[in-house]
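Q: Here's a chain of 244 amino acids. Please give me its 3D structure as tokens.
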Amino acid sequence: MSTLIAAIRSLATYVAVSLYVILLGPPILVLALATRRPLTLYRVALGGVRLGLWLSGITVRVRHPEHIQRGRAAVYAVNHASNVEPPILYATLSALFPRLRVLYKAELRKLPILVRAVDLAGFVPLERGNRDQSLPAIERAAAALRDGNSFLIFPEGTRSRTGELLPFKKGGFIMALKGQAPIVPVAISGARDAMRKGSLIIHPVRVTVSFGEPVPTAGLDMEDREPLMTAVRGAVANLLQESA
């Protein structure tokens, strides 16, 4: 019975959020393009995220929000096990708008309205395995960091089917080193119970987002990349254990 209720709520969520995007997306995008003010897009997108979370019954608890770097650029490195995690993190980091960027998979550029919006917001697409595309993308992201913009990254590169922390990819860490920005370890737990890989049903659960102390990169270079990745991955693993 609970699965049937979750399926009905999921359908309502998909329909409502789709209508929200269809009705508000084009005019708000035109307005943002005309004024060159992406903050409008951020706020409207946040409304859509909050609508989806409310309809699906997902609630969010935030631990150690004092580690969010409101006054400086930082890279937020988060574990990944569910499709609901990106919108939850987007809402959790809303205090950083409009200086929050996302390093995202280039495949998402196939979505017509989305691609114009993310370009205006300064999000950076990354095509993993394509060195000719990924290196310039990382350079652009590092330049954005130096300009004071923060980035949200999922360093595992894909969702974990089991919830176990996967090995980290190096792209986001190269970006942080080039931008000399601290990396904030972030652990999100409970999201896999909300929506598992391969499933379209969203279950009403409580998700916990835990922020760790920033790991500095000032003065480090590319030779420090591996120890940096190890330190951040270890911090994320510890946060996951604490919130279990």
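Q: Can you summarize the key feature?
A: Helices lie at 2-35, 39-56, 85-92, 112-121, 131-146, 171-179, 191-194, 225-243.
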